[in-house]
Amino acid sequence: MAADSTTARIETSFWWSCLAMSRDAVDMQDEAWMAKALLLARKAESENEVPVGAIVVKDNEIIGRGWNRNIGLNDPSAHAEIMAMRSAGEALGNYRLPDCTIYVTLEPCTMCAGAMIHARLARLVFGADDPKTGAAGGMFDLLSHPAHNHQLQVSSGVLADACSALLRDFFHQRR
Ligand SMILES: [Zn+2]
């Protein structure tokens, strides 16, 4: 009996460590995609736009890329997430983006969160929190509102330090 319970304990701890490993693997994959979004945030910065970048990923492949282009395009809706969703929609030939994940360096605003629900995105992963205009709990809790007919899975804080440092430095230089 004692040997059985020891075996059971060892097996349990083995499965817990497997779960922890798969969790780490997911986190590392999220960080790798966020690093790609950060490159696009830098592209926005090089165009004197607020440095936010976004990508849309489906089946382990980037199908949409976007960065803030409000000033360049004279377009109040040209946030990185909208641009990334537009390019993903073109790539898929579909106005909906099922089974897709969007990675964005900053917590989305209400406009972008609304578009993500319309797009039926499966998952949102963001970097820095936005306590002023964020719609994923930063200022508004729009994404998790139970009245929506679609719910996204949300992960936050991925490469948050790098994402927020880019924004902080950008606004600091402009002061
Ligand atoms: Zn937005």
Can you lay out the helices and strands and say which pair or pack?
Blueprint: H1 2-46, E1 53-58, E2 61-67, H2 70-73, H3 80-92, E3 101-106, H4 110-118, E4 123-128, E5 153-155, H5 160-173
Parallel strand pairs: 3-4, 4-5
Antiparallel strand pairs: 1-2, 1-3
Task: Write structural notes for this entry.
The protein is 49% helix and 16% strand. The protein has a 5-stranded mixed beta sheet with strand order 2-1-3-4-5. The chain is of the alpha/beta class and 175 residues long. Helix 1 packs parallel to helix 5 (160-173). It has helices at residues 2-46, 70-73, 80-92, 110-118, 160-173; strands at residues 53-58, 61-67, 101-106, 123-128, 153-155. It is built from 5 helices and 5 strands. Zinc ion binds next to helix 4.
The major sheet is characterized as: 5 strands, mixed
Number of helices: 5
β-strand number: 5
Oligomer: single chain
- Order of SSEs: HEEHHEHEEH
Low confidence ranges: none
Radius of gyration: 19 Å
- Enumerate the strands of the largest sheet in spatial order, edge to edge or round the barrel: 2-1-3-4-5
| Overall pLDDT score | 91
What are the main properties of this structure?
5 strands, 5-stranded mixed beta sheet, alpha/beta, binds zinc ion, single chain, 175 residues
Summary, kept brief:
The chain is of the alpha/beta class and 175 residues long.
